From TrEMBL:
This is Cytokinin riboside 5'-monophosphate phosphoribohydrolase. GO terms for molecular function: hydrolase activity, hydrolyzing N-glycosyl compounds. It comes from Phocicoccus pinnipedialis. It comes from the Bacteria. InterPro entries: LOG (IPR005269), LOG_fam (IPR031100). The gene is yvdD. Belongs to the LOG family. The keyword Transmembrane does not apply.
């Protein structure tokens, strides 16, 4: 699939290792060089700020979507011209998803996970499916994929839905992973009823 816009979900903080911010900046640079529009949460701090600055510094197109409360707290990126101010976090999340052909996740916290799981669950149900890639900087998301394996082992997640998600160690490979995405059949009542047990 040809990707024209990507939503990046990531932390408003920088984390405790410089590699997180460097990786975010490099992702913005890669998107700009490939003429892919960056859509993100509009922040000027942390990894949000780094990915936007990376794109802007290299002539990329950037759309920020930020709730009023964060603008009031002076958290918006001042260099982003296409900054859309929305009512609340829920509207922001919906627009971040709607605007994107694909999703990339950099390290982040609870808000980043909330955004991921909304897209992931929608893909399972078949409401919409968008390719999702985690940039696994310094092994940050290894434990999340272990959790997903636990879901599968105990039959709370069908194994085929892991195909909706990619874990990428090298940021240079993330676009290719997204472009090779293939849709997966959504969940049906029959899938739930048949289930299986490991006991």
């Amino acid at each position: 699939m040809k990707i024209k816009s990507i939503s990046v979900f990531c932390g408003a903080r920088s984390g405790n290792d410089r590699i997180f911010e460097e990786s975010a900046y490099n992702l913005g640079k890669i998107l700009a060089e490939r003429d892919i529009r960056l859509v993100y949460g509009g922040g000027g701090l942390g990894l949000m700020g780094a990915v936007a600055t990376g794109a802007l510094d290299h002539g990329g197109e950037v759309t920020g979507i930020i709730p009023e409360i964060l603008v009031d707290r002076e958290m918006a990126h001042t260099g982003v011209k296409d900054m859309r101010i929305v009512k609340d976090m829920s509207v922001r999340k919906e627009q971040l998803i709607d605007e994107a052909d694909a999703i990339i996740l950099l390290p982040g916290g609870a808000g980043t996970m909330e955004e991921f799981f909304q897209v992931f669950v929608a893909g399972q149900i078949g409401i919409y499916q968008k390719p999702i890639a985690f940039v696994n900087t310094a092994g940050y998301y290894d434990s999340l994929f272990e959790l997903l394996d636990t879901f599968i082992y105990h039959d709370f997640l069908e194994e085929r839905f892991i195909e909706l998600v990619r874990k990428v160690d090298r940021i240079e490979d993330v676009i290719e992973e997204l472009e090779h995405f293939k849709p997966v059949k959504g969940r049906t009542r029959e899938d739930i009823e048949k289930g299986h047990s490991h006991r």
